[in-house]
Design a protein that fits this description.
The complex is a heterodimer of chains A (408) and B (88). Chain A is built from 14 helices and 6 strands. Chain A has 408 residues and is an alpha+beta fold. The longest helix of chain A has 32 residues. Chain B contains 3 helices and 4 strands. The chains are: A alpha+beta (408), B alpha+beta (88).
């Protein structure tokens, strides 16, 4: 576990061509070849590509082969390289992946993108170039661990880049934006009004019921985002998925903006002319009605809490269908960073933390002051507008300018 | 003037509006208000063309509608509108 974590921590793995090792110097050396596997929508691939452009210009002896893994042939070639280099299954599936080899010497592979990977690539290319024509074996350099400035290193999680659009910034910003969700705000306002609207207010009860609701909501949302993440990790290479996600996010943002311009905040309270509400809306209404009854009743507290937890899970599950924009865009961009699975879940927690932050602060203020913070129509409308615009930009960036989402 | 407050137990906005109304009614005991549950009196939907709950309808002495508010309304805004129309 620790051993494999260390591999994951440094974000790249280094391997040797066994044939080359077994017969060092026995064969004549050939030109060093750089196989660069990339995906056209992967933002960090575009960044690593710049380094490769430079290496190609600096070293005429280096043959560079760029392979698009979203094509059938490219994908098959990558699989054969994975097998040849005995790359662990857990490390497969992301881009960029580089294999640098020279016959008679051996080769190495590097997975993912970070400054230390770039340094390792450049170092190994220089080594191979220096050895060309020379019959010496290059020094083993299995694990090149370097911590560059602007990074902090956490156990199991690895290096966290603090500058530019790192996964950390991405998770915090998008989680925060997603947290300003009009429907979630209405649900929280509803809960607080129920708890604080009565004649006698019991601070402990308010804290426990509100806390349970927020905690369960966070948990359900975490499971939901994890599901998207796993889906995109599974489908990672397919260009069509990126297009579907980009178009989906853009369409979703247009719905939000349409709601903003037609003044709709939360559809649950609309009663359409034909009376044909969707099944989801009916389910959601039933849950809200149960919640109203439960908090008004004189049930024992534990039973109230169990009911609140169940209702919170239900309300959030239904709401998931109405708020997939940010989670989908976020998990799709995150998978572009080619991180280890431990890191992915760490960033999901960061996202959820920021997602819950505003709810938590409103709740805390309510518990302390025992008054409901104003949830005004104007505020909720502004929230819709900001979310809509942010999602629109994200969707367009995923489709047309993936490099904007790159790790700087 | 009389105000009809049309709401439902499943509607979060109605619940959010409850304490705001409670405060206003405490401050203006002379104000006439009536709460109508949308589910218990479904005919209200046709009678007043309701498309959203909560809906707050201000009626004058003759029972004619003078103003209609939907969804979340700030307490200050409500008080101001009530003061404007209370003598009608």
């Amino acid at each position: 576990m620790v051993k494999s974590s260390v591999r994951l921590i440094i974000l790249f793995s280094v391997g040797f061509c066994l044939l080359g090792l077994l017969a060092p110097g026995a064969e004549a050396q050939s030109q060093p070849t750089f196989y660069f596997f990339y995906s056209p929508t992967c933002s960090v691939c575009a960044r690593q590509s710049k380094l490769i452009d430079r290496l190609e210009a600096d070293y005429s002896q280096l043959a560079v082969k760029r392979i698009n893994v979203t094509t059938g042939d490219g994908y098959d070639l990558l699989q054969s390289f994975y097998d040849k280099y005995q790359v662990e299954q857990s490390s497969r599936g992301g881009t960029p992946v580089s294999f640098i080899e020279a016959e008679g010497v051996g080769g190495k592979y590097m997975i993912g993108y970070s400054e230390s990977v770039d340094e390792a690539i450049e170092g190994y290319v220089q080594q191979l170039i220096a050895l060309e024509g020379d019959n010496h074996q290059p020094n083993d350099n299995d694990a090149i661990e370097s911590t560059t400035s602007g990074q902090i290193t956490l156990p199991f999680i690895g290096a966290i880049n603090l500058s530019g659009l790192s996964p950390l910034t991405l998770s915090a910003v998008m989680g925060g934006l997603d947290g300003f969700n009009a429907c979630a705000m209405v649900a929280l306002g509803f809960l607080l009004a129920l708890l604080l609207g009565g004649e006698s207010i019991d601070r402990r009860k308010v804290f426990l019921i509100g806390g349970t609701f927020i905690l369960v909501s966070g948990l359900v949302y975490f499971l939901f985002i994890s599901a998207w993440l796993n889906l995109f990790m599974f489908l990672g290479y397919l260009r069509i998925i990126t297009i579907v996600v980009g178009v989906g996010v853009v369409l979703f943002s247009l719905f939000l903006l349409k709601d903003y311009f037609s003044g709709i905040i939360c559809k649950i309270c609309d009663v359409p002319e034909d009376g044909q509400e969707s099944r989801l809306t009916k389910g959601q209404r039933k849950l809200f009605a149960i919640m109203t009854k439960v908090t008004d009743s004189s049930m024992p507290l534990w039973l109230v809490l169990v009911t609140v937890a169940t209702v919170a899970a239900g309300i959030n599950l239904i709401e998931i269908f109405c708020s997939f924009g940010f989670p989908v865009a976020y998990t799709k961009i995150l998978t572009g960073f080619s991180l280890s699975s431990v890191s992915y879940y760490f960033y999901l927690l960061v996202y959820i933390g920021f997602y819950m932050l505003d709810d938590f602060l409103i709740f805390l203020a309510a518990v302390i002051t025992l008054r409901v913070t104003k949830v005004s129509e104007k505020y909720l409308k502004a929230v819709k507008l900001i979310s809509g615009l942010a999602l629109l930009l994200l969707g367009l960036a995923i489709l047309f300018r993936p490099e904007f989402l790159a790790w700087k | 003037m009389k105000i009809l407050k049309i709401g439902a137990s499943w509607c979060p906005e109605c619940v959010i509006m409850r304490p705001r109304w409670a405060e206003i009614e405490r401050a203006m005991p002379e104000l006439q208000t009536e709460y109508i549950d949308y589910d218990q009196q479904p005919e209200i939907k046709k009678q007043y063309q309701i498309d959203h709950v909560p809906t707050f309808i201000f009626l004058d002495r003759a029972g004619q509608e003078i103003l209609r508010l939907k969804g979340l309304v700030e307490k200050e805004e409500l008080s101001e509108l009530i003061n404007q129309h209370k003598d009608k």
